[in-house]
Specification:
single chain; Arc Repressor Mutant, subunit A; Heat Shock Protein 90; 16 strands; 418 residues; alpha+beta; 3-stranded antiparallel β-sheet; 6-stranded mixed β-sheet
């Protein structure tokens, strides 16, 4: 929309940016949820300026302050009937933004190593690899008909997605108490990490950081594995993956946040609940704001079963004696809170298993948690004078038991946490 022009095309009295800002905020306040828009000045040859307002496409149905949902018909705004609202809500597409071309991006901005890793995992999960690389990228929505990278492609495979989409990063913050304060009681934190890179790397790095900060009993010191960590591993990982896969990437200026307190873990995802999902039907219904991103992460192996994450997260928390997760939804964000308040160990909890790893494997697992991955040569360096075949069997055993995931082949092989 352009402000400052009459209906007949003549220039109106000049509009100042301050006036436009006030009018725009008043208009936004009358829409629920608020409409995403931004304005800029447009210099004109005759002197003076116009105000341009860009209104982003929305996947939501927006109502006015008095509860009406309107559609534009010619020069009028017509209220929708209840039947029309239901029909439009059911038929709206939600993948528009993830399919959009990223201005300025080319396929040279894709990371070849990330692509090779994805294709290998895709093939391992049974997907046919008879098509060319570009055909596969088009099939998964990473490029458009003209071969240009889409939002999906940059987020999944980009060398530096945050160059184009700064909002796609994540932040981890740890507070030493139950409040957002430092150890001295003032405003601050005990640890803060900013994470960049493609979405699969953000998932892994967030998980590794949370694992480092979790109280895990004798796992490190005694080379023993206690199944009951501070938070159930599946619940933490699922909360992180859901935030990354389902956030609203149209919202600029805010990233995913993981806040760790002494009594709880909060995972905050920008964007409210999508489509017809509410807090009441969150478990029973399934709806994806970013279906291509979800499918990409599923093919990668980060999502085990489509549509079952919330159910299993709740089951895992309750089974291990924790309160069920708490879910909070606003117009701009969705928060999952995991509590570590477990007064009694449940009788169904697994007993501690002694020595699931040998000494070399324990060092390998510690290396992966600290560095994010491990190669055969790195394992050789931290293991000393041990035959290559023994080390190969060690790593194969960790893969077979579900602790590590093997990526690549031959000299390009490396391992990450499963």
């Amino acid at each position: 929309m352009v402000l400052g022009v009459e209906e007949n095309g003549r220039l109106a009295p000049e509009i100042w940016p301050e006036e436009a800002e006030i009018a725009l905020q008043e208009a936004v306040a009358q829409c629920h949820p608020p409409v995403l828009c931004q304005w800029q000045t447009i210099p004109i040859a005759q002197g003076g300026q116009l105000i341009g307002i860009r209104v982003e496409r929305s996947m939501d149905l927006h109502s006015t302050a008095d509860g009406r949902i309107l559609v534009r018909r010619g020069a009028e705004n017509r209220p929708l009937t209840g039947e029309e609202v239901t029909r439009i809500a059911a038929g709206r597409t939600t993948g528009d933004f993830e399919d959009e071309h990223v201005p300025g991006a080319t396929t040279a901005d894709f990371d070849p190593e990330i692509l090779r890793e994805y294709l290998a995992m895709r093939e391992e999960r049974g997907a046919a690899q008879t098509s060319s690389r570009d055909e596969i990228l088009f099939e998964v929505g990473a490029i458009d008909h003209e071969g240009r990278p889409t939002v999906t492609g940059i987020l999944l495979f980009g060398k530096q997605p945050q160059t184009f989409l700064p909002q796609s990063g994540a932040i981890f913050v740890r507070f030493p108490s139950t409040e957002p304060r430092n150890e001295e009681g003032g405003a601050g934190y005990g640890r803060r990490d900013e994470l960049r890179g493609p979405l699969p790397r953000i998932v892994e790095r967030l998980w590794n950081i949370v694992w480092e900060e979790m109280r895990v009993g004798a796992v490190v010191n005694q080379l023993q594995r206690e199944e009951l960590t501070e938070y159930p591993a599946f619940a933490v990982r699922e909360a992180i993956i859901n935030a990354v896969a389902h956030r609203d990437y149209r919202i600029k200026g805010r990233r995913i946040e993981v806040r760790m307190y002494s009594d709880r873990l909060e995972v905050i995802s920008p964007g409210g609940l999508p489509g017809y999902i509410t807090l009441d039907n969150l478990v029973e219904e399934h709806y994806s704001r970013n279906p291509r991103l979800v499918n990409g992460l599923y093919q990668w192996g980060y999502i085990e079963e489509l549509g079952l994450g919330i159910d299993l997260m709740i089951d895992e928390m309750v089974r291990l004696g924790h309160p069920p997760p708490e879910f909070k939804a606003t117009e701009y964000s969705f928060t999952v809170t995991l509590s570590n308040n477990r007064p009694n160990r449940p009788p169904t909890a697994a007993a501690p298993q002694r020595n699931p790893f040998n000494e070399r494997q324990a060092r390998a697992m510690a290396h992966v948690r600290e560095q994010g991955s491990i190669t055969n040569s790195e394992y050789q360096q931290i293991s000393g004078d041990v035959s290559a075949e023994t080390l190969r069997r060690d790593l194969a055993d960790l893969v077979d038991k579900g602790h590590l995931l093997k990526i690549g082949s031959k000299k390009g092989t490396y391992y990450i946490l499963k």
